[in-house]
Amino acid sequence: MCLAVPHRIVRVDGNEAIAEIGSIKKKVRLDLLEDVRIGDYVLIHAGFAIEKLSVEEAEDILDAWKEIEEAQNEG
Amino acid sequence: MRAIPLKLIEDLRNLNVSRPLRFMEVCGTHTVNICRFGLRSIFPKNVELRSGPGCPVCVTPASAIKIGVDLALSFEKTIVLTYGDMMKVPGPTMTLADAKARGGRILSVYSVVEAIDLAEKERDFKIVFLGVGFETTAPSSAWAIKEAKRRNLKNFFLASFHKLIPPALEILASERTLDGFLCPGHVSTIIGLKPYEEISKRHKIPCVISGFEAEDIIIAMLKLIEMAEKKEYMAFNAYKRAVKEKGNIKAQELLKEVFEEEDTEWRGLGIIPKSGLKIKEEFSDFDAKIAFKIKDESVKDIPGCKCGEVLKGQIYPYECPLFGNSCTPEQPVGPCMISSEGSCAAYYRYGGLIEP
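Above: the input entities. Below: the structure tokens describing the complete assembly.
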């Protein structure tokens, strides 16, 4: 139930917004975040944007793996 | 779906593990994806991953279903709304779906926003929302209470069955049968790293926050094994694209404003201290439990059903005698087979029967 799905914000009207994923658009609430703008990627859970997704940090997970790998090679 | 780099799979499969390690994935969505991607088949020998209590519908006690059924059938001009997963969960007398079939006004919704909008539209009806879910979901219920107050909706009520994950981890960690937690990504989006850091230190158990793609889970498992082997008792965030160190502070503040912690019952785990969210007195006008004088009475679990042991990771779903026999997704007995993210449903649908 804690599934949250990444959407892109396409319209903002106060604390309400339209978010899209693929060709699906839905109305979502922005009350749980600060400063959401058009074009931002957000995680949507039960009709609320619960976090902004940073595209750069998606790369971090691969960096985290590199660190583990390096540590293992050293060991 | 993107292909998983083969190297990653080989790295995990061939990892040298010096002693048997037993971990737990806490989140139901993790359970489903681990089964769906068949990830248990690539764990190194000696590494076991048990499924935990992170399916909110599964740990909601039968008494909550009874309350929903009673509200819908015994009170006039009352409409009960809840999340779809709740509809088929067995209660002591019947499910919410059964109550609906008998004429009870029960609607399944995607968001609590729909309950607020209905309360605005149908002023002659009392609208009761059965709020279930962990920290990911609870902020939306807190929002609903404040929104009802703002819009002066005197006909909106929340029956809060919301629960907190860290107190459940405390209990599980204190039993000293686990070597690490694969922590729930979207609960962590709200609560951040601190609660896990405290648990790690106190119980000497590593915690790794994981995303939900196969790669996320593999990398989190690699990290978890490494930390357990090196006895690094701390919290590691392997889902940085969605989890900030401090979590979602705005959501945390909203929770603090509207709710206070209380001892509450989890199906299978019993009463866990300070693990439930109760509506604060300031907002008691919107508390369904007060408005409808609801007594939260404990109800006996279903005979023969081992959901309780499954939820604590003491047994695998297929070790329950009912699993696949009298309990299947088509004819479920226990909540873990009913909920789409229940452990039993996930093991049944995707196999994952890896008995040695």
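Note for the figure: The first helix of chain B runs from residue 6 to 13.
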